[in-house]
Write a structure and sequence with these properties.
single chain, 314 residues, alpha/beta, TIM Barrel, six-stranded parallel sheet, two-stranded parallel ribbon, 11 helices, binds zinc ion
Length: 314
Amino acid sequence: MVMHVIDTHCDILSRMLADPTISFAIESTGADVCLPRLRQGGLRLQFFALYLSERFADAGMGPILEMIDLYRERVLASGEVVPVRTVKEAEESWASGKIAGVLSLEGAEGLQGNLVNLRTLFQLGVRFLGLTWNHANWAADGVMEPRQGGFTVAGKRLIAECDRLGIILDVSHLSDNGFWQLAELSNRPFIASHSNSRSICNHPRNLTDEQIQMIVQRNGCISLTFVPWFIREKTPVITDILRHLDRFCALGAVDHIGFGSDFDGFDKKLPGLTNPSDYPAFGELLLKHFSEREVEGFFSRNWHSFLLNNLPVD
Ligand SMILES: [Zn+2]
């Protein structure tokens, strides 16, 4: 049985930007995500991150627009992926059997403090914003910034404008101070697109129990990620993900859990979770430990209902 899957983070657009020979339509060496593997994996909705590698961090909107162009010219042009920007499009794509594509910006760096850029990206279909990558930017501090600051004045304006437009905020790389300031400054649901449990694997990219409970309280969603060093410090294996899932469930998150693989965002893979085609076997593993209803929730239902509740209507 192949279950439907929603995956809330992959970096294939950034890979294609760095290497123009990488294809979406067929498997290429050097990339994890491609149409055949999404099909084999049962993917019904894939988030496509607009991530500026450090090489492009100061390059502004240019590389972001290039990645949106790659999304349109390669991913959507395949005819098998349809853009989802609204509840109406989410419902239509779910009924059509095609794969839905959602654009998310990872890190506010490229906006360069100008909300015109944010509004333009909204017009181009961007619906999620990860406020930072690992370091500080003009809006806020990321998890690896030693001073661990929160939001700047301009960053607070960014939150307000995202709330007004209906861009959903993603805390996956945000500093702890930034996380708690965001919880104060916005009363909309927010999400973590690719983070695990810090009490199971003590890495700053993972969420504390209190953070997980706050996202649940806000009716947000949290996607666990397959990056090995966020799963276990030493020699992680696929079953270690179960410990994270158990922890999330113990904190009341069973209806708020999803997966954000981060495929194409890291190289050394967890054995058994190397690209999207591994989802069905992973589902079989989960079914040995969780009920079918729970696994369907983790794989798609939790995120599907979140999107229907939080995307713009039409
Ligand atoms: Zn990331």
